[in-house]
Amino acid sequence: MSEAEDFLKVAHAAREAATVLAPMPRAPKDTALRVVADALVAATDEIVAANAVDVDRAREGGTAEAMIDRLRLDADRIAKIAEAVRQVADLPDPVGEVVRGSTLPNGLELRQVRVPLGVIGIIYEGRPNVTVDAAALCLKSGNAVLLRGSSSAYSSNIALVKIMQEALARTDVPAGAVQLVPGLTRESVKHLMRARGLVDVLIPRGGASLINSVVEESTVPVIETGTGNCHVYVDADADIETALEILVNAKAQRPSVCNAAETFLVHAAIAGEFLPRALAALKDAGVTVHGDERVCGHGADVVPATEEDFATEYLSLDIAAAVVDSLDDAVAHIRRYGSAHTDAIVTRSQGAARRFTATVDSAAVAVNASTRFTDGGEFGFGAEIGISTQKLHARGPMGLPELTSTKWIYTGEGHVRDSPRTVTDCAGR
Amino acid sequence: MSEAEDFLKVAHAAREAATVLAPMPRAPKDTALRVVADALVAATDEIVAANAVDVDRAREGGTAEAMIDRLRLDADRIAKIAEAVRQVADLPDPVGEVVRGSTLPNGLELRQVRVPLGVIGIIYEGRPNVTVDAAALCLKSGNAVLLRGSSSAYSSNIALVKIMQEALARTDVPAGAVQLVPGLTRESVKHLMRARGLVDVLIPRGGASLINSVVEESTVPVIETGTGNCHVYVDADADIETALEILVNAKAQRPSVCNAAETFLVHAAIAGEFLPRALAALKDAGVTVHGDERVCGHGADVVPATEEDFATEYLSLDIAAAVVDSLDDAVAHIRRYGSAHTDAIVTRSQGAARRFTATVDSAAVAVNASTRFTDGGEFGFGAEIGISTQKLHARGPMGLPELTSTKWIYTGEGHVRDSPRTVTDCAGR
Q: Where does this protein reside within or beyond the cell (chains A, B) (predicted)?
């Protein structure tokens, strides 16, 4: 069989499973997730053996040890993965929630109810734990899932999906609801991106180039996630101590993640007081500052920033910096260079906070708080499939409700329509 | 200037206007809409003259009189268009609505607030009233709009957009918020479809081929609207009188719209009793029935249905019909041939209604009611930009809130994050 045929086989299997899974209530889904969690722990040796193949191949290929560590699975990590599945089982089920409803003037009973999206395709890089996390979140929200992980974790992913499918086969949830996209080539990603009608939504998780290529090529609707060029703006009215703490935390607490700060902007009125202390504090935290001309004057260690620095998501202990003459200039800078993920203002001024939150057009805007709080766990969602940086469907951290659509149900007693055509009536046709 | 440069000019103007419009509160937007309504009425002669150019061209081109009538604008129709704009001004503003919010355990105050999408592109066919309707709905929801109407209405649309822009120039709403995409060629649509970053969402309104081509080619996120292959399923437990009334209403009350029924299915147990009466009632209403073999036996006037009939959105006084052996067979038929717009069941059985609403995966599911009620006006939205048949972002009739996104705002007092990495923390990176 060709890779294309292989793909169609698993996609149709997922579609069929989705049909069975969609109307399923919470209890059998939770039971199935707990069976999956137990099965993963029971299969620890098998998973570790499969993972060793990936780790050996990575090492032979000269992959850096830090990356190999991200790839590695051991008994402790597998136990944590299984525990995360049990936590998903404990979360409320978004499916069936009545979002809106009313009795219309004519007596029709109308309600809008959450339903699963159907089949979700997830394209991701890196750690094999995502294979299980994503599958658990999709199952819980009544969706079948097509997983397309990194080729570097292919052996691990084959083992994990096989174990999950075997576990599901002992439950009411159809085993076909979790599928690995077969193949390692770029073609196998293309099959997924062109599977309109079979796949309801694609969620790419990873670097900017992966996400851009999916957005460009996919005919399946896409939810963009994760690119985070986040800013901290230190206003003229900022409390200096607060600004220092937030800046260092936003940059250095965990620099490799999407909600870490990549640029800070400081109002000219406070730059003279703030910058020497900020540069010192960042240096203490091991951070290299790439500053514009007005920043460079305040410290010997500042690397002159190029235009590109302001557009870069470093994901490292580097930060770009600029002095701005007004809050509006800060907002304009963020609009120009940012990725509309999370941007923060530090200020004591209510007016400045109000203007910043109203005019910065990002998924999240923080006032006197670190950008690092933009996270499904921190927001109390209990789980997160990614952070959407697009405006359609979901924006910001995506929990279980963001993996659903809705359906309108209306009930009458022989209601027929006799009203004349309205301006809204399928207008345009 | 080339058409591409012309397009970029209006798209950038719309983008700039969107930035000003987005944080604007309700009052100035409503005022602007009322100014626009008055300006349209005041410019009746100018609009009628521009429209006459389109009407003459259509007539010379041999366009059918029914289509020419859809295109024609007169004083009465212009007054109605203006009145619809005033009605939009009277609707609540979705922007600024707090959708969710809480104080997190650490004291961060978190809220999710509705914000405009930004720049909305609308591609539509037919009637020039859509030019004004769509502009009013976009402005009210804080969005700039790029309008790409039918070339058959190009003169009318130029006049309408010019009048709206001139009216807006006398208000606080930037005149650039309403833009006509320049040019008449298919290329001008392509510019819109490739304007990722400048345009936030595209809404195609029209026939299936328009919508499919936009979905295939657009890199801008798309909301699919309007294709309606709607079904009426007459269950074994249906009340015959109710079923007849609903069937005739769903098909014949207004056959040219997307929520009209295009197929009816009848359970074998009731077919013998129902079909002769249904065929007679449909004949009386001027409807041609295209039936499968089991339907053909019940009436001399039934045209034998081909496979294609069941997949067709007639939008005329035609309906396909089939006998099914069970509710599940009816659902399977709808899943195979339907467009996931609206499907209805007629039944006295609570169990059948429950199973049908749970397993039919459509934007709207009706119980003992005509499919014709799937409409923003009927649902009480006050206005409708279209009916989404996709699952992402919006499903079913789209009112003003469906033209918005959300933004998370969190406020602290120097909050920094010290929690360790969680499983959800930008997972996959």
A: Cytoplasm
